[in-house]
Amino acid sequence: MKIIEYNETYIEELKDLLEELQEYIVSIDPYHFNILKDDYKEKIYLKDMEEVKNNEGKIYLAIYEDKIIGLIIGVIRKAENSFDYERLHNMGEVIELIVTKNSRKKRVGYELLNKMEEYFKEKKCYTINIDVFGYNEIGKNFYFKNGYHNRMMTVSKKLKND
After folding, report:
1. pTM of the model
2. What is the DSSP annotation of 77-112?
């Protein structure tokens, strides 16, 4: 396996991985709010590319036998002057981290995360933030094992409306 920077040779495989993640999220969403429309992978690809372009982002791919087996997308959020935070500088944010189902438990996610952490360190980021879907126990466990902690949490309750 090797880690490379994204290039458009892999555009369709990248879109397929983005769709694979959404399929997983849809499958574990007990509220059934998350959906997967026919145009999802095109829309999420364009959204992520815009984020990368506008926020000093990077995309790294894990390649094995000339196929993508994982990807990570990270951006840098510039801290604004704030009245309630002491140490806000550049903040790294992982907006996508996906490993194909057949490549999990082979350190692919670990290698991708380390590569993105190196990039964020080069850019003098103070922290790295990653949003994880609350029901994604696999994702949360992965991040906890790699030294991440809960900092904020959104709680939710589904209301019955007749």
Report:
1. 0.90
2. EPPPP-SS-S---EEEEEEEEEE-GGGTTTTHHHHH
